[in-house]
Amino acid sequence: MILDTNALSAFADGEPAALAAIGKAQLIAIPVVVLGEYLFGIAQSRRRIEYEQWINRNMRYCRVLDITSETAARYANVRLELKRSGKPIPSNDAWIAALCLQHSLPILSHDRHFDLMKDIRRIGW
């Protein structure tokens, strides 16, 4: 399962429903884009030290998904499909969607725009 930024935040905050969903996953994957968004967010947080300690303790249980040339090709297809349908999404989320497709993994997210893309299964909590 791929974690979106809001899912990673819920994980760090110990939200029970998010933890239950994550607990069912065989693999927890974090796109490098999500990691960047999360680190940017916590750098501005008054709980920065607490969150940095949490991420350092828990990253060993997660697989970080890097962007490759295969991801880039899938990203282009995602953006094109959504542009043609008149339903563009934020650029970072298109990268995350491309990684979902590339690795054939569902995404844990509150963002319903992932539902617009065929072949991506969004899990909410």
Describe this structure in words.
- The structure is a single chain.
- This protein is mainly α.
- The chain has a single domain (2-123), classed as 3-Layer(aba) Sandwich (Rossmann fold).
- The protein contains 6 helices and 5 strands.
- It has helices at residues 5-13, 16-23, 32-43, 48-58, 69-85, 91-103; strands spanning 2-3, 29-31, 63-65, 107-108, 122-123.
- The strands form 2 sheets. A 3-stranded parallel sheet has the order 1-4-5.
- It is globular.
- The model has no long low-confidence stretch (mean pLDDT 96).
Keywords, separated by commas or semicolons:
mainly alpha, three-stranded parallel β-sheet, two-stranded parallel sheet, globular
Instruction: Enumerate the strands of the largest sheet in spatial order, edge to edge or round the barrel.
Output: 1-4-5
What share of residues are in beta strands?
A: 5-15%
In total, the number of domains comes to: 1
Reading the helices and strands in chain order gives EHHEHHEHHEE
CATH topology: Rossmann fold
CATH class: Alpha Beta
According to CATH, the homologous superfamily is 5'-nuclease
> Span between N and C termini?
13 Å
Radius of gyration, in Å, reads: 14 Å
Shape: globular
Please work out how many helical segments DSSP would assign. 6
Unreliably modeled segments: none
Q: How can the largest sheet be summarized?
A: 3 strands, parallel
**Class by alpha and beta content:** mainly alpha
Please give the number of β-strands. Answer: 5
Mean of all residue-level pLDDT scores: 96
CATH A-level architecture: 3-Layer(aba) Sandwich
Estimate percent helicity.
55-70%
